[in-house]
Amino acid sequence: MSAPSITSIPKPRSPYKARKTGNFELNSWLFMRGSGLLLVVLVFGHLFVNLMVGKGVHAIDFAFVAGKWANPFWQVWDLAMLWLAELHGMNGLRTIINDYATKDTTRFVLKTLLYFSALIVLVLGTLVIFTFDPCLDPASTLEVCTNR
Which residues cross the membrane (predicted)? Predict the structure, then answer.
């Protein structure tokens, strides 16, 4: 007995049309991996400098932060940590909202609140890092203020 031969495959009732979404999801997946690795380096470097170098945790006070942020290197380091952590977390929450919010209006409202709150944190955090001035008090005895 021979097997029946199939010469053609019937056409589907409704042809599948792939949605053109671009590479946004792929790029956000890659961003999560890259930012996660970079955050590990930034956070452990931050912890090492703040907790292990010098007097450790007992040296962390206003003067320590003021001295650290007087150096542009540490401003950029903390800014990179802030931005990467905020965007990494926002992207993760965006993915959770997309996965679990079933209604389009709920998804829209939650993502709008997420983007708005992330923008506020990024703007305020950036302003604090770059406009921080420990010498606003004329009686300040910080070394940073006396070297002006």
Answer: 30-49, 113-132
